[in-house]
Fold these 2 entries.
Entry 1:
Amino acid sequence: MNKYVPITRKYRPQTFAAVCHQDAAVTTLKNALKSGRVAQSYLFSGIRGTGKTTLARLLAKALNCENLSSEVEPCNQCRSCQEINSGNALDVIEIDGASNRGIDDIRQINETVGYAPSGSKWKIYIIDEVHMLTKEAFNALLKTLEEPPPRVKFFFATTEPHKVLPTILSRCQRFDLSRLNQDSIVLKLRSIAEDIDRTAEPSALDLIAQLADGSMRDAESLFDQITCFDNGPITHTLVQNMLGLAPRALFFELDTAVKDHNLAKAFDLVQTIFDSGKDLKHFLDHLIHHYRLILRLHLGQRGLLGALPSDERTGYENALTIYTHHHCLDILDYLVQWLQQIPSSPFKRIDLEMTLLFIIRIKQRIPFDNLIERLNQLEDKVPLEPVVITQAARAPEPVEEKEPSLAPVATKPELAPIATPKLESLSKEKPIQEPAPQVAALSQAEHEPVEAPKLESSIIQAPSEMEKPSVHQSHYDTLMRFAAVELNGSIKS
Ligand SMILES: [Zn+2]
């Protein structure tokens, strides 16, 4: 007979003391037990694997235990405790709200709720995923919750408390169980590893905890899967291979490509990822973690390096010299956006290539803040009342008559309207090397009926300096070209 018991069940907390990370709920429940003021109904909410059902069962055990300790811990030895542990208790009825969600299912509860418990102190209904009940079922339950028969208690568990009717919520004492932190998960995994006599690298346990995303059950399932796969020590590489994760070395290769501006590397890396059948979502998760770690190191959390194996520590020390924290922020912004698009994207490979290309080109991008700061500095240096060089500036005729399109620019030469998509046309039409675009524009304006008024609109200069461009003006022009390329016409006027 197969005696294998999954780790999630084998190491499920059997006492309040063994519950990880939910101190507030545990203390409140224990105090209620000590003072004999246990509420009629409780609602445990939280993400998967945070201990909702575990706490409901523990409370049921403690209420019905025949030898409750002075610390209100269930004995796990008496008939009631053993029946609950094995799932055979007649007086602790567990109902899955997802598959028993209709009014008829709740009617059955209503019909049996009046019968006294058979041999235990309390008759306890534990309804899991209670938010799945239909509205009619909730309403049918409401009456029973309002006036429950003596010696009956209801414990509800849900991952989505906002879907539970307010009338139900208001009749329950509610515990919002928090997501488990990485340290709690690692601690529990380490104790399990010791118990089953397996050695485990700290970074391997960290990786499992990271993947579990706050759920102890997920962490234990992954750990179980890995221990079944291999009988040797649990190493970081084993976890990576087992779960199809990209090795850290791949990210360090990307860092080097950024440093060398090696665009071709993007395609090589994507090829490697696809050839090895890595899960794209996992890869992206880890890419985000990679830049998140570099950002945190930049923000002064150098202690994080200590937890890494020596080769990775070197890799991250190197990465710190490649990226600034602005680079990390920009990359993280981009990756988080892309993460949301993955499920619907039909071109995942191309998307991934574009993402890596974006990262490799990150050092070529001028940060927005930088650009705006430089524009502001330049704005301060531009003459207070600049004049647009037009034909009108030379000829005595009024501007309105000959060049009506230029009039608003000439009379209102502010920078804001200049830094608009119009700039794009400037950068496209005139190469940067051209020494004096305003002169060309001027001569063009003399012979033609002004085909590109946008050009003139960006040329601002005091009349006295008309013939010879000032230093300010040439800087300004260059910056405007940068802005045009950088903004890519995305800012609306
Ligand atoms: Zn007991």
Entry 2:
Amino acid sequence: METRVELQIERVAPGGDGVAHVDGLVVFVPRTFPGDRVSARLVRGKEAWAKAVEVEVLVPAATRVASPCTHSQTCGGCPWMGWDVAAQRAAKRELLADLLRRMGRHSEWPEIQVVAGDDLGWRSKAEWLTGAWRAGAVLGYRARGTNDLVEVDDCPILAPRLRDLLLGLKNGTVALPREARSATACLDESATGAVPGASFSAQDRADAPLDVRDADRRVRRMVQGLPLEFPLRGFQQGNAQLLSSLVDRATSGLDGDEVLDLYSGSGLFALPLAARGRAVHGIELDAVAVRTARINALRLGLEGARFTHSDVQVWLSRQARIPEAVLVDPPRAGLGEAVVKQLVRLRPTHIRHVSCDPATLARDAGALVRAGWNCLRIDLLDMFPHTPHMEVVMHLERPQ
Ligand SMILES: C[S@@+](CC[C@H](N)C(=O)[O-])C[C@H]1O[C@@H](n2cnc3c(N)ncnc32)[C@H](O)[C@@H]1O
């Protein structure tokens, strides 16, 4: 459609876009918020929806605020930057409640508790792209809607030590090989180099580490008083301030001497549970994460923690019984029908469901509730302020 239309933004969609209606079409409008009135051109999707492009805000929503980031107009990260943080949190709670009702196909869920930290200075891991060279590297993120580099001179969501590292790499006080095409940076309690407390790996165009030692490099983070290690280039939770709170909400009150930790990564939940005297068995598909979890257990003398390298569904399908207490933290795709089916067959009493995708959580938790578990508690941790992402911990219990 070549002509422009005026749109009133009504709410936000789970992906973060504003949603409006015009001529029977649902329109997704990037980087807009409920209450905005905008003008845009529409690009039709296959069904009764369209995407808005070339969006111009005519009347801003009352919840718009001055952006704390000078790059928010061009940078592809943080699509909700410039929206009042209390409104962001209310929207996340509504999105989750709506998904639980619609995709979970169940109407009686407990009230959602929102847990929040600071909205700036939280990010503990970052991927920076590198471009041309000046005194130091030109560093930045992907631009909105393209793969182009947007150079940034600062990034206020980064934890302070990562911010120092970004500035050091840019002004040349921290050396980066010139052939680097990207850098992965994380907080690291064991780092004593140019920026104490932060480490990075430089990568080539194919995302391979330029220094071969980085392939196996681990970083250290304090979690509930335990110095845990994670692969520098592998999965780790991304919010420095809410990490211990996430572990606390996922593990506290998990009754029973034995706990099964499905999708256990490097042992973020299993190791604090083992430190509290539980016998924990982690199941994880990524070999580097399994190795890191075992190294953590050995280093910390946590003999109660063991880790098996396996696909969760395959492993569960071979079990005749499992512990009464099970923690699950699947990737975005969720548990899926096959794993839910195995849990229903094995009938653990307690399930702690940790999820970074509210849609697949709603689908899987709905299936578990229909199979007999009660949902007792839902915590929404706002671990990714200024983005639509959220982390959710749900407590499910099966009546005896
Ligand atoms: C969201 S992460 C959680 C990791 C860990 N609980 C943490 O918070 O650090 C999901 C984990 O599931 C693992 N994973 C993905 N698919 C899997 C599968 N089919 N079977 C077992 N583990 C899998 C990934 O390698 C990743 O470590």
